[in-house]
Amino acid sequence: MNTVTTRVLISPPKYVQGAGAMRELGQHVSQLGDHALVLADDGVWGFAGETAEKSLADAGVRMTRETFGGKCTQVEIDRIVARVREVGANVVIGIGGGMTVDTAKSVGFICDGIPSVSAPTVASTDAPTSAHAVIYTEDGAFDRYFFGLHRNPNLVLVDTAYIANAPSRFIVSGMGDALATWYEARACVQARSVAMAGGLATDAALSLARLCWETLMEYGVQAKTAAEQHVVTPALEKVTEANTLLSGLGFESCGLAAAHGIHNGFTASPNTGAFMHGEKVNMGTLAQLVMEGSPTEEIDTFLRFSHEVGLPTTLAEIGLADAGREELLAIARAATAEGETTHNMPFAVTPGMVLDSLVAADAYARAYAKKHG
Question: Does residue 4 form part of some domain?
């Protein structure tokens, strides 16, 4: 039984967002250290490297660039830790997607807690703001959460020009991740679950989670259109903030529940490997809503929004069209493994309940799509 009664909210000390923000990287990083190890893959470095390098140099920050290996695994973290210690860097910067920034955060913690900086170039997850990381196996399956980083990144810097220039699938996937924030937050609050922040949710955190949902409902379709045209608009700015900051603060200080637990179950199937984090989370959210017995109107609102922005709502849309009962049961078992966030629901959850919810959610979503075209 949970005996925690204190409420906790955690957040990064500084969040910077806007078109051209990468040009300000150096002035912010110079307040944290004078030798930065910058982690980025070759693709990201191709469009962001020159600006980042110049900004750091202009601010008097020495830079060592290291190529990211592609996955946030323990092997990759250990490799970068060794490199930081070898060159004597006193700040680590991750430029790129969620796995890059998660690796940078983990490296900073292991290297005696040196400052870390998240500079996401896509708005596909809420990883950049959080004080934990998701560790994967070498073949891409979910391994574990790396809790206990003790603090959020010292700086989160989001250049929305990069967000707009990325394929629109990234910001849409981010909406799937962010859309789960409110549904999971309210479940955790009802269950009085202890959030990643180390206590119960504050009213402020719950309000941020709700604001995240409201922002997506109001501006999500506009933001997708802007991303498709590769332009920065107020709607794209608002949804970038929702995907990154509001969702990050909301989930970490309120908690994750079945939506993300089921996502982690999905990663156990190689058939889902081609799909993004937020895409799989979206199917997990739908299953959570069904599991909760949510009103039809609420589920229909969720499905309508998902269809408008292009988020998956059926098993077929995340690679599980031919999944039989045994494969779905394996996913359900992984989703309810000991320590999974699925157990933050306000009722006990079994593999059978997850399986039934997935089957029912898939069938309802297919019927909805047929009815509404």
Answer: no
Asked whether residue 135 falls in the same domain as residue 279, the answer is no
Express each pLDDT in 234-292 by its tens digit.
Answer: 999 999 999 999 999 999 999 999 999 999 999 989 999 999 999 999 999 999 999 99
Domain of 81: which CATH number? 3.40.50.1970
Same-domain check for residues 184 and 310? yes
Q: Which residues are catalytic?
A: 177, 260, 263, 277
Domain boundary, last residue among 137, 165, 193: 165
CATH at residue 176: 1.20.1090.10
Sign of CA dihedral 161, 164, 169, 170: positive
Same-domain pairing of 274 and 135:
no
Q: How many folded domains does the chain comprise?
A: 2
pLDDT at 310: 98
Pair (70, 143) in one structural domain? yes
Is the pLDDT score of 165 beyond 90?
Answer: yes
| Residues 156 and 269 occupy one common structural domain | no
Question: How high is the mean pLDDT of the chain?
Answer: 96
| Segment 169-187 mean pLDDT | 98
